[in-house]
Amino acid sequence: MTATRVLVLNSGSSSVKYQLLDMTDDSRLATGLVERIGEGTSRLLHTPLTGEGAERARHEPIPDHAAALKAVASELATDGMGLDSPRLAAVGHRVVHGGRRFTEPTVVDEPVLREIERLIPVAPLHNPANLRGIRTAQAMNPRLPQVAVFDTAFHTTLPEHAARYAIDVATADSHRVRRYGFHGTSHAYVSRRTARLLGKRPDEVNVIVLHLGNGASASAVRGGVCVETSMGLTPLEGLVMGTRSGDIDPAVIFHLSRVAGMSVDEIDTLLNKRSGLVGLCGDNDMREIRRRIEQGDGAARLAFDVYVHRLKKYVGAYVAVLGRVDAVAFTAGVGENSAPVREATAGGLEGLGLAVDPELNAIRGEEPRLISPAGSRVAVAVVPTDEELEIARQTYSLVAGDGTST
Ligand SMILES: Nc1ncnc2c1ncn2[C@@H]1O[C@H](COP(=O)(O)OP(=O)(O)O)[C@@H](O)[C@H]1O
Ligand SMILES: CC(=O)OP(=O)(O)O
Ligand SMILES: [Mg+2]
């Protein structure tokens, strides 16, 4: 029996998202989510996508990532697709921070694990969870290849003038302080898919990708190569996000420390968890914010306006970085679903060649589509991301050795 299946794991600080795919036709066999790991109210939602299988939910305390993965494996085993299945070729892990060293998907061995561990100080929220996911999967089936696919990999092409912060070089270098960028798997996938939507090869087009999920980032991709991105040393820089501030004057931190007496950890939590849309209006779900705006809620309106203003500034900046732009692509939860965000972001940018057709923008769908009027200088597109498929492809291409990752 040939092993053609890949399990993709995206381990977050308190959740694990997973998908099992068959790489002969990229089909999904199962998908699921473990939420609130470590809290009393954990939940596993498992959806088999073959045969008659219906969605199954488990409500039980899941104390840590090892327990989460064991629960996932047992659900998969119930459907005859456990981690010991001879049809499973590998597990592909989303690893958020790969530093400068990991520019490609990598089969995990002890030195690779040690390097991911070494990067914990620059990705304290993400890398520990990713490591636990890998170690647990390894322990469950030591013969199964584990592949790490890094969020930072696509951004390792940033030119030095984009990656450098303008601070003392010796200090920066000794502590690895530079801009790394994240969500790279999504930026890579969406920029390629956008080229295809335009009927072009990736190396023929310049694309601005706006990945607007809970975390949000923008990137400028020239001929398939990433030349600028909005996240930095950590996923805190850049756009306004669900709970993260994005760009602020770094002096805000000194001020809060000196004047408000807040500790570094308190400020870290403030900027990562109590800022962004949540900080501005108490909600981080764009659907809820739109609903509140319809009812005349001023705080929700301001949150929306701050969010869109930041986005517009980045679009303008990236037009300047690229010189010539063929397309702006909206993706992830907000980018794919919020017509008001897309309309407000492109609004008033006719001078840059950008426009959104209200009727096209209102159409909902799963397929990549153009929302700019025919004949626009710059195409504006909605291009659903698929990080799991991209991770599965890269993983399979590495273990099957057939170079089919593009
Ligand atoms: N129909 C919708 N309209 C507007 N926003 C939506 C809609 N569906 C999802 N979202 C937004 O997408 C966000 C989640 O995006 P997603 O890409 O799934 O995030 P992540 O993968 O970072 O958890 C939600 O917080 C919500 O704001
Ligand atoms: C890197 C990052 O911000 O990831 P997420 O959007 O999954 O939080
Ligand atoms: Mg996402």
UniProtKB/TrEMBL annotation:
EC number per UniProt: 2.7.2.1
Residues given in the record as Mg(2+) binding sites: N10, E387
Pathway: Metabolic intermediate biosynthesis; acetyl-CoA biosynthesis; acetyl-CoA from acetate: step 1/2
Lineage: superkingdom: Bacteria
Cofactor requirement: Mg(2+); Mn(2+)
GO molecular function: acetate kinase activity; ATP binding; magnesium ion binding
Main enzyme class: transferase
UniProt KW keywords: ATP-binding, Cytoplasm, Kinase, Magnesium, Metal-binding, Nucleotide-binding, Transferase
Binding site for ATP: K17, H211, L212, G213, N214, G215, D285, M286, R287, G333, V334, G335, E336, N337
Ligand binding (substrate): R94
Subcellular location as annotated: Cytoplasm
Cofactor annotation comment: Mg(2+). Can also accept Mn(2+).
Gene Ontology biological process terms, A to Z: acetate metabolic process; acetyl-CoA biosynthetic process
Family recorded in the similarity comment: Belongs to the acetokinase family.
Protein's UniProt name: Acetate kinase
Organism: Streptomyces oceani
Gene: ackA
